Amino acid sequence: MNRRQLLQGSAVLPALVLFPGTEAVAAVPFGASTVRELARSLASKSFEAPDEKLPAKLNDLNYDQYRSIRFRPERALWRAEKLPFEAQFFHRGFFYKNKVSLFEVVDGQANEIRYRKEDFSFGNDVPAFTADDLGFAGFRIHAPINKPDYYDEVCVFLGASYFRAVAKGETYGLSARGLSIDTGEAKGEEFPTFKAFWLERPAANATSLVIHALLDSKSCAASYRFTLRPGETTVFDVEMSLYPRVDLEHAGLAPMTSMFFFGPNDRDEVDDFRPSVHDSDGLAIFNGKGESLWRPLSNPRDLQISTFQDLNPRGFGLMQREKRFAAYEDIESRFEARPSLWVEPIGDWGEGGVVLIEIPTREEIHDNIAGFWRPKVPLKAKSENNFTYRLHWGPDAPKPHSLARFVRTGIGARGEGSKLFVLDLVGDNLKGVDPNSIKGVVTAEKSEITNIVTQPNPDTGGWRLSFQCAVKKDTPVELRALLVRDDKPLSEVWVYRWAP
Question: In the predicted model, is pLDDT for residue 421 greater than 50?
Answer without folding.
Answer: yes
